[in-house]
Amino acid sequence: MVIMRLRNARMVDLVTGTAGRPHDIVVSGPRIYRSDVAATGADDDGSEIDLQGRWVMPGLWDAHVHFDLWAMACRWPDAGRADSAAELCARLGGITEQRTDDEPIIAMGAQPWTWPDTLAGAMLDAISATRPIVVVAANLHTAWTNGAARRHWGMDREDLADGVLHEKDAFRLEDRFSVVDETMLDEWVARAQELAASRGIVGVTDMQHGPGRIRTWRRRAARPDQLLRVVIACWGDNLDEAIASGMRTDHPLDEAGWLRGGPLKIISDGSFTAQTAWCSRPYGDPGDGLDPHGAPSITREKLATLMGRAELHGLQTAVHAIGDRAITMALDCFTETGATGSIEHAAVPSPSDISRMAELGLRASVQPVHMLADRGLVEERWPAETDRFFPLRSMLEAGVPLSFGTDAPVAPVDPWLTIQTAVLRALPGQEAWHSREALSIAQALRASTGRIGALVPGGYADLIALDENPFATEPDRLGRTEVFLTMANGRITWWADAAD
């Protein structure tokens, strides 16, 4: 093993908020040691970086990413830039005119709940009758298609003739258009890892759907440009494959230490902005023939069966549950099966269900940035009950551990925007949305590090060096935090000096 020395580092304790005096950190293989101690047999080749008194803390994690889809979205048209359906269609028309090929156009990140007009499949048909065109909502639970797209991806059913796909149909389409050239996608993923590392991320939980995810990540992790630790989830239709591979939650999946087994991911309801999250109180008229309460995406019996089978084979379960009814059903199944794991999103749990989560030892994997998109709809549909949404502090005070993520490409992979939102509960300059539920900087940071509060001798060399002490940063500037250096698994994955 080669020794590297990080000179003049100020270690930040995320529990106390204090920082020590500058001293040296020794990195040997994937571990850190005191400046006077190194692993036996290590080869000190003199490699060092002078951090010049910068602040060093545990590296950041994104606990919920659809990594391949995010990497693709970084390359495709950004529908989130459009302020209306008409503007988006004009932009897509311009892209079509510039193209000389007949390749599909897929625009990700649309936010139609903010638009003054309504997108329809016929509007995409008017752009092109022959080139497949797809627009995917930022929530991933709704997609709009032209006829060419439905024919191209085998979804030319009569009940989808209007071009609008919801929930399982939208997911099915996303699976199909995500099948791209393997070599090209690996390059896109490598570049996306660089972007994540530049923001201080050392690891992600990859919730990408599809077969062969372990094989795919083993291939990528064998490359010299692997930059992130990856916890690999499986889905119900690939559970047999995961079990046969021997995957177990938190167990290593490669010798180099980049990959670990993750949970079984199950979706139990929809999304607030799609008005399909399963809630006890109605949305009013959600339109498009949708149930006014939202709806479950799985039966209670099937959910319990999958969870019980996962638990039997050493896999935790991550249940996507946004609405209060979905959360209650998920907790009933955790209780019945004895399964362990997390509630993903946990956007509107009842007070009694928050207590149940704590009693069951479950983690809440939450995405604070989502409240920025959901706030308008919640205030419109449930104006008297907005204090029930995103109860981050209530969960933490009840004893429910929090893990922060983005659900990218639903939101950008930007942990500092996540941290800032959890602290402000608004964008800078806006009034806080129920400030009682705001977290302290220390709480938000720990929820972003996999709940690691400090770097310790013998611990993993997953760390970041910052130009500013986050505890001395004004909360409305946290989103602009600059990362000087990121190290994951003992490898430098981002270094601002080298990037300049």
UniProtKB/TrEMBL annotation:
GO terms for molecular function: hydrolase activity, acting on carbon-nitrogen (but not peptide) bonds. Pfam families: Amidohydro_3. Transmembrane segments: none annotated. Residues 48-493 form the Amidohydrolase domain. Its EC number is 3.5.-.-. It comes from the Bacteria. Keywords: Hydrolase. InterPro entries: Amidohydro_3, Metal-dep_hydrolase_composite, Metal_Hydrolase, YtcJ-like. CDD domains: YtcJ_like. This is Amidohydrolase 3. It comes from Propionibacterium ruminifibrarum.
